[in-house]
UniProtKB/TrEMBL annotation:
Compartments where found: Nucleus
Organism of derivation: Lingula anatina
Main location: nucleus
Acidic residues compositional bias, start-end: 184-200
Alphabetized UniProt keyword annotations: mRNA processing, mRNA splicing, Nucleus, Spliceosome
Protein's GO biological process: mRNA splicing, via spliceosome
GO-annotated cellular components: spliceosomal complex
Biased composition regions of type Basic and acidic residues, renumbered to the chain: 201-223, 295-324
Presence of keyword Nucleus: yes
Function of the molecule: Required for pre-mRNA splicing.
Family per record: Belongs to the PRP38 family.
Name of the protein described by the UniProt record: Pre-mRNA-splicing factor 38
Classification via InterPro entries: PRP38
Amino acid sequence: MANRTVKDAVSIKGTNPQYLVEKIIRTRIYECRYWKEECFALTAELLVDKAMELKYVGGVFGGNIKPTPFLCLVLKMLQIQPEKDIVVEFIRNEDFKYVRALGALYMRLIGTSLDCYKYLEPLYNDFRKMKQQDRMGNFSIIHMDEFIDSLLREERVCDIILPRIQKRAVFEDNNELDPRVSALEDDMEDMESSDEGEIVENDKRSPTPERKRGNYRDLDQPRDPPSPRYRRSSRSPARRRRSRSRDRDRDQRRRRSRSRERRHKSPSHRHKHRDEDDKHKRHKKSKRSHRSRSRSKERSKKTESSSKSSKEDLEIKEANELRAKLGLAPLRP
């Protein structure tokens, strides 16, 4: 008797309101302790007090499918079917966020498509944080606007399959709903206006490519002739003769220098330089070989002296050991 729907309840989607929750989950709710102790004989007035005690939202969790108190209260609301004004007050409540989430989920289950858009879309402006429990029993943080968006877009929320609703564009075409205006559009417009102002200021400060091109002379266009005031005076015939004679002298000097270089680069001259280079290289090689020989001799002398000293040290050590056994003084202190 305690799990039956009230007599005056109206069928939703053509069925019993409690049938909106799947049978397996519904039976688990009936068997849980919270349903038997806290949800027994609840009325619409007492339901408010229980909703204010909620600490998180969620469906079922654990291996044995335990229901959360939030899901138990949703099923209790489907059972007693409170009035629409009470549900609207749940949604408009700004002090208790879990009461608002409970009313939003119930409105999504029993309300029409027009009521869902009318009462749930204003909650997009609520950015408060809520705790949510997943199927594994772990808790995570979500926001109220995320929860409302999942109610309007997803097919399953808190392990309850949501009824289908019509798309918003249909109501806009029928003039039943106004086009949705986001609260962020004003901020976006302010940001765009500020960005445009910055761009205009930057344009004033930095010249455009056309202005930059105006500062430089275009090489493709013919250059304008200079004004008669700044034209150079033509050279006199005496200056022209002097410049020609200077050019001739320079050409003669260049020819003489080239001829001298060719003479110096004759084959006999090249052979002489080669012989001198070969002699110089041989001399260097002999010096290097002499140095290497001297270094090898010095190394051999050092190794011989070190070997001799090591042999003497060994002999002295052996003699000292014998003297120590006999009780005599060592050779070297």
